[in-house]
Each structure stands twice: as structure tokens, then as C-alpha cells.
Amino acid sequence: MKQSILVMGGGVIGLSCALELQRRGHRVTVLEINRCGGQASGAAAGMLAPYSENLESPDAFFRFCLQSLRLYPDWQEMVKKVSGRNFEYTNSGSLYIAYHEADLLALEGRLLWQQQFGSSGSILEGDALFRLEPNLSRNVRAALHTPEESHLYAPHYVSALEQACRLTGVEIHDNLGKLSVTEWRNEIAVQSADQRSFSADRLLVCSGAWVQELSDTFGLRIPVYPIRGQICAYEVEEKPVRHMVFSNQGYLVGKENGTLVCGASEDVAGFDTSVTDKGIDRLRKWNKQAFPFLENKIPFHRWAGLRPSTQDGFPLIGSLTGASHVAFAVGHYRNGILLSPATAMLAADCVEGKNPSEFNQAFSPERFGRRG
Ligand SMILES: Cc1cc2nc3c(=O)[nH]c(=O)nc-3n(C[C@H](O)[C@H](O)[C@H](O)COP(=O)(O)OP(=O)(O)OC[C@H]3O[C@@H](n4cnc5c(N)ncnc54)[C@H](O)[C@@H]3O)c2cc1C
């Protein structure tokens, strides 16, 4: 049945869910306190890297990330077609580098379980590695090469999502300032700072690192915290880094527009999105070790965003048991860009009350219990 749905939050998650729900025939309104894509989503490096981001085991989070990577080829094509906008989407593959023998053992362990989950990865050493990534430091002992991993240009992707939403009929209200959920037990009512009222049959909360503000409203513990990511970019010529290159210190990814993006710190700084010399200097130190040609290069651009981190590392995606017309899709931490298509599908299914998926329990928004 066609429903009216309010989506709170116009980041990559809110916009992806809104687009999917509108395409399924619902009437969707996005409410954004600021500017769509103006927070974590616009700050992201855009890596779609489930294997490089999940080092330990094939848990529910890894499987969800992998599902999302596999949805991407069709999803991004749909977003481009519907929005009429192009954005970079590149299957560069990735290299996870190791400097020491002990780290190589860890890579071999990862490769073993990741091969069982579709990775065609391999460990590369010596000439084979340097042929693939010629400017890599000769101090690198080996790397785990994962050809399946891709990346996109996040700011353009998010703005294409916004345009796709508008063109399919999603109503977007931005720069609303503070929003209050004034009614949710039976029907949904939300009020903006300037006293505008919005009502609907259903509510989907996608407010990223700010979701904890709604704990009192819903009487729920929502342990989602902002973790600042400081990140920078160099101007380069002729793509000197061909793959996404990861280590336990950071990552580098070359973009079509001639920039080399290097991220990212993980600091606890509340909701402060300023960039510090200390944060960027730490990244630069690592960059030079991995790619000596960066020795004297200074990043031309530095920025930061707030990743929505959760207490157990899993996102909160699902409806409330006692109020199934209220759902959440938050807490994607380092992987919200990667997870946008899979979250859009899962959250839309939850909003429509469809059969539970294998992820419902692990990602339940109520798993941390009630407040107080
Ligand atoms: C430096 C950095 C690099 C990253 N790199 C990658 C990467 O390479 N790959 C990847 O997959 N992920 C990456 N991430 C993570 C990714 O950016 C996040 O997981 C993702 O953007 C989260 O999306 P979101 O929509 O939940 O949050 P956001 O983009 O923060 O959007 C939430 C929105 O909700 C709005 N809002 C807040 N409160 C309310 C309210 N009460 N009502 C309405 N609206 C509200 C905010 O203004 C904001 O626009 C990176 C993050 C950072 C910071």
C-alpha cells in the first residue's frame, strides 16, 4: 500500500532510502536541518572496500558490506540515469600493504577467509607488486591485492542522489534548523524551528552522528557517537597511485579529477569538524613512507567529517517492535557510502513491513535496550 514517509536526514543514507522508497511508489519527504550531503557523506573518500575494511571475520557487517558492493554496478547506473548526472565510479582494485613479515602472516590469514566470500585476491611481492603499483615504496614487503574493490567520487554521488530524489518526486526540505518529533506513537508529526509542521504515516530516521538526540523522544538507548575523520588531498599528475592503497595507518586513493585523497584520522572531538595540523601531519608522515614521491608535497585541500560510530560497530537498521511505522537507518561509521544501496533496500523493506532479512536481529535499533 502506498504510504507517506518522512525521512529525517539528507545524507547518503537518507537520500538513498528516500530514492528507493519513492521508486517503490511511496510519497517521500526528506527533512534536513542543514544542507543535503553537507556532513559525513560529502566528506567521504568514496571507497567501496568491504574486504579492506573488514579485517577480522565474515560477520554480519562484512556480509552486509559485501552485499552492498555487489549491488553497486546496477545501483550507480540507476542513480546516473534517473538524475541525469555523471560521477566517477572506478573499479581500481585495492592493495593492503605490509612492511614486515609478521604483518604478511595476518594478510595471508585474511585472504583465506575472504576467498571463501568471493574475493579473487592474492598476495603480491617484489616485481609483481611494483609492476602493479610502480611508485610504491620499496620498503613495502608485500600487499594483499583485491581486484573487486572500487571507489566513487562521494560529493558528486551524493548530489546525484539528491537530484534523482527530486526528479522522482521526493519532496526535499532543507535548512530547517532544529527539528522536533512531536508525535510518533500513532501517527508521525515533526515540527521545524520556524513552526512548520510535517506529518506522515511513517518515519525513517537517518540523522547520522546526531541520532542520539532522539533517545529521549523514543525512550531508547541509541549509542551512536561522532568520530571525526580528518582527511586531505594532493594535486597530482598522471595518476601516480593506481589502486586504493591501505595500511593500518591510513589509505590513499587517486581520483579522476587529478587529486590524490589521503585519509583519515579517527579522533573523538565531539561535534567539532575543524582540521588540526597534528591530524594532517600524521597522515602526511604515513603517505611519505608508502609513496616517497610525496616527500615534499603539501596537501592543497584539508577537511573533516563526523562518522556515526556505534557501540558494537554494527549500524542500526530496522523498525521498532511496538511502533513498526518508525524505523531507523543510522550508525554506518566508516562505510556509509559503500552501504548506501544495501541500506536503501533493507530500510525500504523494513518500512514496508516485509519479511525479516538475515540482518534484522544484528542491526536491530532496539538491541541496546531502553533509556533510563
Ligand atoms: C573523512 C571520512 C572519510 C570517509 N570515507 C568513507 C569511504 O571511503 N567509504 C565509505 O563507505 N564511507 C566513508 N566514510 C563514512 C561515511 O561518510 C558515513 O558512514 C556516511 O556518510 C554516513 O551517512 P549518513 O547519511 O548516515 O550521515 P551524514 O552524511 O552525516 O548525514 C546525516 C544528515 O542528517 C542531518 N541531521 C542531523 N540531525 C537531524 C535531524 N534531527 N533531523 C533531520 N536531519 C538531521 C545532518 O545535517 C546530515 O546532513 C567516511 C567518513 C569520513 C568522515
- The neighbouring-strand order within the major sheet is 6-7-5-15-16-17-14-18
Named once each, the bound ligands are: flavin-adenine dinucleotide
- Number of contiguous helices: 10
Q: What's the rounded overall pLDDT mean?
A: 96
- The CATH homologous superfamily of the largest domain is termed FAD/NAD(P)-binding domain
Structural description of this entry:
It is a single chain. The chain has 372 residues and is of the alpha+beta class. The chain contains ten helices and 20 strands. The chain has helices at 12-23, 40-43, 50-53, 60-83, 101-115, 126-132, 154-168, 215-218, 277-290, 340-351, and strands at residues 4-8, 27-31, 47-48, 89-90, 94-98, 122-125, 142-146, 150-152, 171-173, 179-183, 188-192, 197-200, 202-205, 224-235, 244-247, 250-254, 259-263, 301-310, 316-319, 326-330. Helix 1 (12-23) crosses helix 10 and helix 4 (60-83) packs across helix 10. The longest helix is centred in the N-terminal third of the chain and has 24 residues, at 60-83. The structure holds flavin-adenine dinucleotide. Flavin-adenine dinucleotide is lined by residues 8-14, 31-34, 38-41, 43-47, 179, 206-210, 229, 231, 263-264, 305, 307-308, 330, 332-338. Keywords: Oxidoreductase, Thiamine biosynthesis. This is glycine oxidase. Its EC number is 1.4.3.19.
